[in-house]
Write a structure and sequence with these properties.
By secondary structure, the protein is of the alpha/beta class. The protein has one domain: Rossmann fold (3-Layer(aba) Sandwich), CATH 3.40.50.150. The chain has four helices and seven strands; from the N terminus they run αβαβαβββαββ. The two termini are 20 Å apart.
Length: 187
């Protein structure tokens, strides 16, 4: 499956840099290829090394919003570093539904925030609490309100969603489930 995903995007060029990047990498889990109904049944996953090798078109002063599940927290921080961002904080998405899990039944995901260079946080009067409550929908689909909120915080910024599933006004997108607006390469 990794080859199917990677083949769609190899040998292409970056066209511009972005101030705001939202990414939901297709994390590969140890169990993702071994069980019926696995993640691979929904979409092709990628190895950590391949996610890290993606040439992310970030402006010198930019912000990254990176989705991570609890088991992939360390890997997400590795990706953030590989893409040139420094971790700052996170938001918890409370899915209002406890799914499966190994130690705990997972009810939330993390949205990590990292900064490259100098990038100011949202206006203090527009900031929200660090917990976003919204019932989980289809497998791996993130709350659309988060993308909308980020867009409202930075209306004039050049915005890119990586591993996108659909298009949104004001955002360029790249991913295997959507007609991409940009072409990226791997290091």
């Amino acid at each position: 499956m990794e080859e199917r995903f990677s083949r769609n995007y190899r040998d292409t060029l970056i066209v511009k840099e972005y101030d705001v990047i939202l990414a939901d990498p297709p994390w590969r889990y140890d169990f993702s290829k071994s069980k019926i109904g696995s993640i691979e049944a929904h979409y092709p996953t990628m190895a950590l090394e391949d996610i890290c090798r993606l040439c992310v078109p970030a402006a010198p002063n930019s912000v990254l919003y990176l989705w991570a599940t609890n088991p992939k927290l360390v890997e997400a921080l590795t990706v953030m570093d590989a893409w040139g961002f420094k971790y700052r904080t996170n938001l918890v998405w409370d899915k209002e539904w406890a799914g499966l899990g190994y130690w705990f039944r997972g009810q939330h995901e993390l949205l990590l925030v990292g900064v490259k260079g100098k990038f100011s946080p949202p206006n203090k009067y527009k900031r929200i609490p660090s917990v976003w409550r919204e019932r989980k929908g289809k497998h791996s689909v993130k709350p659309k309100g988060i993308r909308k909120l980020i867009g409202e915080w930075f209306p004039d910024a050049r915005k890119l969603e990586l591993f996108a599933r659909d298009k949104a006004p004001g955002w360029d997108v790249w991913g295997s489930d959507v007609e991409s607006d940009v072409n990226l390469e791997f290091r």
